[in-house]
What does this fold into?
Amino acid sequence: MSNPSPRQSQPSHLVRRSIPELNTLSREEFVDVVGPVFEHSPWIAEAAWPARPFDGVEQLHAALCGIVRSAGEQKQVALVRAHPDLVGRLARAGALTPESAREQAGAGLDQLTLEEIQSFQGNNAAYREKFGFPFVICARLNKKDAILAGFKIRLQHSREQEIAVALAEIFKIAELRLRDLTHS
It folds into this structure.
């Protein structure tokens, strides 16, 4: 019996593909592969599919972000709300998406002391109470101390400022995830 190829043994969104390969995918396949770039929001990939062919990762990322920018505040806030709390209930239960689990671990958020966990939980609660959505930051570009400092700064923002900052962080997350799933 032969060994399965990497494409057969991994979920399709974990197989690295070239942009020309992504351009040839059916709508369903494209959404399956590109959808996880935005946390629990496959509607963004679905809306981008008709804009194919894309010349490169930058153009695909720009198209995806353009869809979010033009989606209106209600859908934008829904996208922010699709993200888990950092060190939140889902993380502690091991129920994060594989991407979020890797990103939080990379920032050291899986190695916190009890005091640090309580600090994250208190900041998460204060942030959610003020803004009505979770604190989103690109964990891959930050470590725990920078994230905790970010709470203090961002809790001073208006809701409109925080929607903009959260979306900018989501766009960074999406770019890194998109680069993870593509190759030249």
Remarks:
- Residues 107 and 139 are 6 Å apart (CA to CA).
- The domain at 84-166 is CATH 1.10.3330.10 (UraD-like).
- The first strand starts at residue 17 and ends at 18.
